[in-house]
Amino acid sequence: MVIDIPFIWVAFKEIAKAIPLTLVLAIVPVVIGFFIGLVVTFIREYKVKGIYSIANGYVSFFRGTPAIMHIMLVYFGIPMLLDSIINYFNLPYETNKIPIVLFVLFALSLTAGAYLSEIIRSGISSVAKGQMEAAYSIGMSTPQAMGRILLPQALAKSIPNFTNLSVGFLHTTSIAFLVSQKELTGTANIVASSNLKFLESFIAAGLIYWGISIIMEGIYYLVEKRVQQYSKGGVA
């Protein structure tokens, strides 16, 4: 067996067309998941009555089960639930017209939210409790102390974990092909199947994943460096 080097470039150009969808599937869930994680963190930190147990169960379930299962549950379960509601109320809607990508984004956002909740919680735990006490002593309310004192420090300390999660979600997008989303891995499969050159296609896909990962890590590094300079009182 001989590797067809020229075909790697051919496959690379074809697979690269899936980069925009892959970035959407990688970035949007992390952004939405951040806000989900933030809310869940506060619920768990302050033990909000009535929903504290639900928040704990949510984090436990989504961290304790694979992302591929979350996509399958949402992809098959949500349409069934919506169809039941539509039929019950006799609404003029059809679930088969909902773009599949929305189900994938919804599932991955829930997954990201669970992981980000733990990342944010660990960041908050790393901040000395005296910081909040000092904020209260000068008359700050809890929301003010959280927004001005606690969260900025917690998020700054969590940047390395955010980096790992973001790169991990870039790789997780590959399972979207199972529900017919033609992201990088899915497109590589299609290119390989049409030419029976699987090795070359996946080398090309691997190079693209690697390149995007390096760019993402570089962006987070610059953000972390800027935050460190700011926290030390330096000028960026």
TrEMBL record:
Entry keywords, A to Z: Cell membrane, Membrane, Transmembrane, Transmembrane helix, Transport
ABC transmembrane type-1 domain mapped to chain residues: 19-220
Subcellular location: Cell membrane
Membrane topology per record: Multi-pass membrane protein
GO biological process entries: amino acid transport
Matching InterPro entries: AA_ABC_transptr_permease_3TM, ArtM/GltK/GlnP/TcyL/YhdX-like, MetI-like, MetI-like_sf
CC per GO annotation: ATP-binding cassette (ABC) transporter complex
Signal peptide feature range: none
CDD domains listed in its UniProt record: TM_PBP2
Protein name according to UniProt: Amino acid ABC transporter permease
Lineage of origin: Bacteria, Bacillati, Bacillota, Bacilli, Bacillales
